[in-house]
Amino acid sequence: MNDFVQALDTAAGLIGHLDSELREIVTLSLGVSLTASLLAFAIGAPLGAALAIYRIRGKGFLVVIANALLGLPPVVVGLAVYLLLSRSGPLGSLGILFTPTAMVIAQTILGVPIVVALVHRMMVDIWTRYGDALLVDGASRLRAMRPLMCIGRDGLLTAFLAAFGRAIAEVGAIIIVGGNVRGYTRTMTTAIALETSKGELSFALALGIILIILSMTVSVLSFLLGRVVAGR
């Protein structure tokens, strides 16, 4: 118990003094995860909406696949991206393995199925309620997508937050493609795993506290933003 209290006290000191290494890790983590979440949302939201609105051959199969990919193992994604970006891989000439860009790619791949599945479920209900009315008024399915997504903005926000939660908490995939290089690709989750294995519990605990605070802050800000948009 005394060890935990001491580690917690040291962690609070690191956070209070804005330790430079701590700040560097947090900044990288937030940048990578937010970028990946935005990309996953930009790709997944239109796909999820299209699955709900358009009559597509094999739609049921595509929906099943999207939902099945929710449980996609991160280490498998990391391995796949590694093989693609390695020197002998098809994209090896890009030279982005063990860089933040590779980490963004891995997190984006993990986030896309989440956004597709959540947006699809939300849009199915909205399309059932408002789709026929929009088509009767002369709107095409493509033109109807935008107002329907505005109606379901709360669901879109939930999808983005789910993608961000998956990205910010990811460990396995980004260790494989990022290499956990100090000062370059070391994120909060990979640093927590490393520092815990080294017995540096204070630093790991400090990162864990910040990780929780950041996740809660993004959720609160997104909720408030949704309320502001809804009130317009």
In words, what does this structure look like?
With 232 residues, the protein is an all-alpha fold. It has a single domain, classed as Orthogonal Bundle (MetI-like fold), CATH 1.10.3720. It has helices at residues 2-16, 20-53, 59-68, 74-85, 100-136, 141-151, 153-168, 172-178, 188-198, 201-231. The longest helix has 37 residues, at 100-136. The model has no long low-confidence stretch (mean pLDDT 85).
Mind sketching the topology for me?
Elements: H1 2-16, H2 20-53, H3 59-68, H4 74-85, H5 100-136, H6 141-151, H7 153-168, H8 172-178, H9 188-198, H10 201-231
Mean pLDDT: 85
Q: Based on helices, strands and strand pairing, what is the structural class?
A: mainly alpha
- Indicate the percent of residues in helices: over 70%
The level 1 CATH classification is: Mainly Alpha
What general outline do the C-alpha atoms trace? globular
Give the CATH topology.
MetI-like fold
